[in-house]
Write a structure and sequence with these properties.
- This protein has 334 residues and is of the alpha/beta class.
- The protein folds into 2 domains: 226 residues, Rossmann fold, CATH 3.40.50; 106 residues, Helicase, Ruva Protein, domain 3.
- The strands form 4 sheets. Strands 2-5-8-1-9 form a 5-stranded parallel sheet. A two-stranded antiparallel sheet has the order 3-4. Strands 6-7 form a two-stranded antiparallel sheet.
- Helix 13 runs antiparallel to helix 15.
- The radius of gyration is 21 Å and the shape is globular.
Length: 334
C-alpha cells in the first residue's frame, strides 16, 4: 500500500527524530538497544509498558531518562506493601478557612502527570495495583464521584521484579492486558557492562537532553496511526492472535500448553507496535518481520501456561515464536 508523498516525508522525519531520541537515551542507559527500542515503541504507540527484570539492571534509570528525552512531566511512585490507593490517586482533605468555614479540597496524587513511573509495581498489594486500572485505560480517575482527567499524553512505565522474588504479588490479568508491551530486561553482555562501569564511575557522566515535547509526542502518536498497513499484514496479525487462543482450531502447541490466550486488545497492540517497529527501522510500512519481532512482547503477558505446561518447564516466548513462524510460513505460501 503506497503512502502519499507528504505522509512519507512526515514518517521519515519522525524516524530521524526517534534516532536522536535513542542516541540521547544511550548517554544514560548504556547498551540494551532492544529494550530502548521497545520502550520507545510503547510511547510512540500511545501505550504503557511493563519492564521485567532483576533489581539493579537499570530499569528505573531508563524510565527517568525517557521522561527527560520525551519532554514529559514525570512522577515516580515506589510501590511497597503498605502503599494505599490514595497515595497514588490523591484524596480530599478538610480545610478550615480564616473565617471558620470548612470545605473539602482535593489534593492530587502523583498519577496526575504525563509519565508515571510505577517502580516495582508488583511489590504493592492487589488493592493498590488496581488503583491504576481506570487511569491506564481511560486516562482519567474517578474520586469522590468526580471524573478527573490526567495529563496528555499519559503513560505508565512500570518496573516489575520476577515473581519468584520475596515480597511480590502477581499483577491481575485485567491490569496486565492494559500494558501494551512486556519488555524483558536481561543482564548486559560483558562488553556493555564494561562500558557501563567506565561511564558511571568517573568524575563526570553524560547527560540526556530533551528531543521531544509533549505536543510533539502526541503528534507522533497521531502520525503513527496514519502509517499504511498492507492487507496481508492485517491478516497475519489476526491469524497470529487468534491462533494463540486455546480453542479447537488452535495449533497443537497452543492447545497442549496454554490455559488462556490474548483478546482483541492484543491485535490492536500488535498493529500499533508493528508500525512503530517499522518506523524505527526506517521503513514506511510494517512487514512480516516487524510482526514476528513484536509478537512475544505484545502477547506473552496476555497469555498463561497451563499447570501441566508450567510443570514441564515450557516457555511462553518460545511457544509464541513457534506459532509466529508457522503463521508466517502459511502467509508466505499463500
Amino acid at each position: 500500500m503506497a503512502a502519499p508523498a507528504d505522509l512519507v516525508v512526515e514518517i521519515e522525519a519522525l524516524g530521524e527524530k526517534l534516532v536522536l531520541a535513542r542516541d540521547s537515551i544511550a548517554k544514560q542507559f548504556i547498551g540494551q538497544k532492544r529494550v530502548v527500542d521497545l520502550t520507545l515503541a510503547a510511547l510512540v504507540s500511545g501505550g504503557h509498558a511493563l519492564l521485567v527484570g532483576l533489581p539493579g539492571l537499570g530499569k528505573t534509570r531508563l524510565v527517568n531518562t525517557l521522561g527527560t528525552v520525551m519532554g514529559l512531566d514525570a512522577n515516580r511512585v515506589q510501590f511497597t506493601p503498605d502503599l494505599m490507593p490514595a497515595d497514588i490517586l490523591g484524596s480530599e482533605v478538610l480545610e478550615t478557612a480564616a473565617d471558620g468555614t470548612r470545605a473539602f479540597r482535593f489534593v492530587e496524587g502523583p498519577v496526575f502527570c504525563q509519565l508515571l513511573m510505577a517502580d516495582e509495581i508488583n511489590r504493592a498489594s492487589p488493592r493498590t495495583q488496581s488503583a491504576l486500572l481506570q487511569a491506564m485505560q481511560e486516562r482519567e480517575v474517578t474520586i469522590a464521584g468526580q471524573h478527573r482527567p490526567l495529563g496528555k499524553p499519559f503513560h505508565v512505565l512500570a518496573t516489575q521484579n520476577p515473581l519468584e522474588q520475596e515480597g511480590t504479588y502477581p499483577l491481575p490479568e485485567a491490569q496486565l492486558d492494559r500494558f501494551l508491551l512486556q519488555i524483558d530486561v536481561p543482564y548486559p553482555t560483558r562488553d556493555v557492562e564494561r562500558e557501563i562501569l567506565l561511564a558511571t564511575t568517573g568524575a563526570t557522566e553524560d547527560v540526556a537532553h530533551a528531543v521531544f515535547t509533549a505536543d510533539e509526542l502526541i503528534a507522533a502518536q497521531a502520525l503513527l496511526r496514519r502509517m499504511p498497513v498492507g492487507e496481508n499484514i492485517v491478516e497475519m496479525i489476526l491469524d497470529l492472535v487468534r491462533a494463540c487462543r486455546p480453542d479447537a482450531d488452535a495449533p497443537d502447541v497452543i492447545r497442549q500448553n496454554v490455559a488462556w490466550g490474548p483478546g482483541p486488545r492484543a491485535a490492536q497492540a500488535l498493529m500499533l507496535c508493528a508500525r512503530a517497529e517499522a518506523l524505527m527501522n526506517g521503513r514506511l510500512a510494517p512487514s512480516p518481520e516487524d510482526v514476528r519481532a513484536l509478537a512475544a512482547p505484545v502477547l506473552s503477558h496476555r497469555m498463561a501456561l497451563s499447570f501441566a505446561a508450567r510443570a514441564r518447564g515450557e516457555n511462553l516466548t518460545s511457544i509464541i515464536d513457534t506459532v509466529s513462524a508457522q503463521i508466517t510460513k502459511v502467509e508466505a505460501a499463500a
